[in-house]
Amino acid sequence: MSRLRVSEIFHSLQGETTASGVPATFVRLTGCPLRCSYCDTAYAFHGGEWLDADQILARVAERDNRLVVITGGEPLAQPAVHALMTALCDGGREVYLETSGALSVAEVDPRVVKILDLKSPGSGELERNLWENLDYLGSRDQVKFVLCNRDDYEWARTTVRERKLQGRCELLFSPAYGQLTARDLAEWILEDRLPVRLQIQLHKFIWGDVPGH
């Protein structure tokens, strides 16, 4: 198994997704081909350290969490991540992959829960959405929309309907931190009776913008 460039490995609570609030080990990989307007992990674009898979697995084992979140940056920018995720699954870990949706998820181990972050117009990276990724999603997978304003919300609402996402996987609507209030987003969802889950970045409300949480 090839080496991976790792920004950090840490123990925290999962701040998003259906596992929000659950203790987890995070493996944050270095590098990302996108530059979203609301990105809060720009420090992971560069730097980090090169680690062999065995070193990563050993550090994950030290933290002793069943849930392991592979995040970034953009994890799929490093092809060796596939073998790492398979090894974690083989070891009995529950593995979540947080990906931008700009790179193919076709080869991701089917045991991995894919968290696909579709990019809204407000992100500045709308054109990077790889729509065929939706074809590889199952009922355990999740699509996340980070929304900056009302226009983003209406785009997401239309996307859910036109792409027939209801019932295919979990749908998560998130307000971009500091740009859209959770209350406004909640009211829009209720008004439209959308079949989605409102989520907030739990870790931001606990630790603010401190890296490694």
TrEMBL record:
Native source species: Acidithiobacillus caldus
Entries under InterPro entries matching the protein: 7-CO-7-deazaguanine_synth-like, Aldolase_TIM, rSAM, rSAM_QueE_gams, rSAM_sf
Reported cofactor(s): [4Fe-4S] cluster; Mg(2+); S-adenosyl-L-methionine
Catalyzed reactions per annotation: 6-carboxy-5,6,7,8-tetrahydropterin + H(+) = 7-carboxy-7-carbaguanine + NH4(+)
Alphabetical list of NCBIfam families matching this protein: rSAM_QueE_gams
GO molecular function terms attached to this record: 4 iron, 4 sulfur cluster binding; carbon-nitrogen lyase activity; magnesium ion binding; S-adenosyl-L-methionine binding
Residues in Radical SAM core domain copies: 19-209
Binding residue positions for Mg(2+): T41
Pathway of action: Purine metabolism; 7-cyano-7-deazaguanine biosynthesis
UniProt entry keywords in alphabetical sequence: 4Fe-4S, Iron, Iron-sulfur, Lyase, Magnesium, Metal-binding, Queuosine biosynthesis, S-adenosyl-L-methionine
Protein name: 7-carboxy-7-deazaguanine synthase
Single GO BP term: tRNA queuosine(34) biosynthetic process
Cofactor remark: Binds 1 [4Fe-4S] cluster. The cluster is coordinated with 3 cysteines and an exchangeable S-adenosyl-L-methionine.
Domain of life assignment: Bacteria
